[in-house]
Amino acid sequence: MSRKFLETDSPAWVAEGLITEAQREALLARYPPEAVQAVGLLPLLGSILVGLSALSVLAANWQNLPAGLRLGLLVGSIVAAYAGGEYFVRRGNRSVGHGLLALGLVFFGAGIILTSQLYQLVGYDVSGLLAWVVAGVLLSFLYESPTLTLLPIVIGAAVQTYCTQALGSFSYATAGLVVLGCGGRWWRRPDALVGTVLALGLLWQAGLWVLVSHSKITWFFVPAMLVYAAGDWHPNARGGRALQGPPLVAAYLFALGLALFGETDQYAGLLRPPVWAYLGALGAVLAASVAGKRARGRLATLPDWLLLLPGFYLPGGLALAVATLVVLYAHAGSVLARAHRAGDAEQLTLGTVLFVVATMVAYFKLTWVFLDKSLFFLIGGVLLLSLSWYLRRRNAQRLAAALGSNKQ
Amino acid sequence: MITRPTPSRRLLLQLLVAAQVLYVLGVAAAGYATTAYGQHIWLATSPVELHQLQYGDFVRLRYVAATVPLAAWHAGGTPQRRQGVYVLFAPGADSLATVAGVYASEPRPAAGQAVLRGFVQEVYNNSLELRYNLERYYVPGDSPLRRAKTGPPLRVRVSIAPWGQARIERVRALGK
């Protein structure tokens, strides 16, 4: 509770007889003013400014410094940042400590890059930067910190981007390190934010893999759904769901794109990988996911897989668009049904949004050609208004029913 | 909350930091070793967009060996964009190295020949555009390039280490 809120509202509580004046003072004493903390930030801000000035002087004169001195500065800043980080962690100031340790890791990467540049040295594989990922993963195991867990995921994505763009090859070692290192770290201590970022980082790498191997983009969903299946196996339901968010969003956007543009056979043709290889791989992932859901008792989330139905094998044209729309409706309905059973207001909202989106896509897709334009907009507007009214009423009823059953 | 430093964690951190410092020093050592133990070839080039020097210390170099006739492609299949390749150089006129062939796997160089790694940038009807990752050159403060108006032809001395790394050693005006 904020002190400011207490100060402004508590006199009214005394006046209404909710609490006595003595209780009010006791409450106020519990939440001391925070002015002291703001003052405590000043030295930190000051040292950041001094540090920035030193950094800009260095950057301006970097190329004119002798090579030995440059190397010394790089090594010195790495050691200093790590030593400072460990010092602050030991003193109990964990946020500053972890920040400095993260800075040390960033300095290490900068050290590798700047040293290669210093000697105009070119490497033709990623081994130089791989050490950066290794160091990041090891560091994340030494400390209990979300920052230090997130950093190697981001570094891994950056190194993979460099490797695929500049060197033209996919670094399986980098991907493996992020999966085993960062994934292993997350598995042992699941955290919603780290889970989502981890999934995003892995999807990014999967996208780069598709790009480099010149495969059909649908192959992206095999590694993406592997990430999803890993979430199914995780003992912590909330953590697992965080990992599954990004793959689900990707699959949904893909299905939406298919509903919107799938009509032209040209687009659908870009998506068709060899049938048996693709379906076999995706089927294996599905089996792993279902096994995980069964083992953890989460079979209710199985309709998520509706989004992965390979509708793009259908001949293009209206048939494909309609089939995809049916899938989108079924998916939105499954989300609504699940939210209804669990009494989850957030999921209910999500299901409603998905339902409205599917309706809008269906409407634009199917009636634009046939209807007069003014009639088109009129009917569309009426359709959305009545839909929103209906869904609102249903939500209110469901939530009331859920609350009622909770009270009994 | 004060985290008690377990001695093992501090030791592990010290080891990790020591390994990182050694690694950075190792990169520097690789730079020296490439010059000391590497093979040296001269490549003809010219800088492009010299006016970039007004804004930074780097120029982009365009190597003569960046454009290779498709006839020099000595690998199966057709070259793909962004594919990594091995370029075989043979000594040519004026001690400048010229491309003897482009291979998908490392060829065995004859005496006097050298192999440099490169990447297919673009594939045309009868030529290939290659990139050697040696295109960015830091121009030292006292280089005559800084006073040049148009991009003069240059010769670049490249060292190629036995383990495949390469570096620009120095740059000189062509014909000197």
From TrEMBL, chain A:
Pfam families: DUF2157. The chain crosses the membrane at residues 35-59, 71-89, 95-114, 121-143, 149-180, 192-212, 245-263, 275-292, 312-336, 348-368, 374-391. Residues 12-148 form the DUF2157 domain. It comes from the Bacteria. InterPro entries: DUF2157. Signal peptide: none annotated. Keywords: Membrane, Transmembrane, Transmembrane helix. This is DUF2157 domain-containing protein.
Automatic annotation (TrEMBL), chain B:
It holds the Pfam family GDYXXLXY. This is GDYXXLXY domain-containing protein. It comes from Hymenobacter polaris.
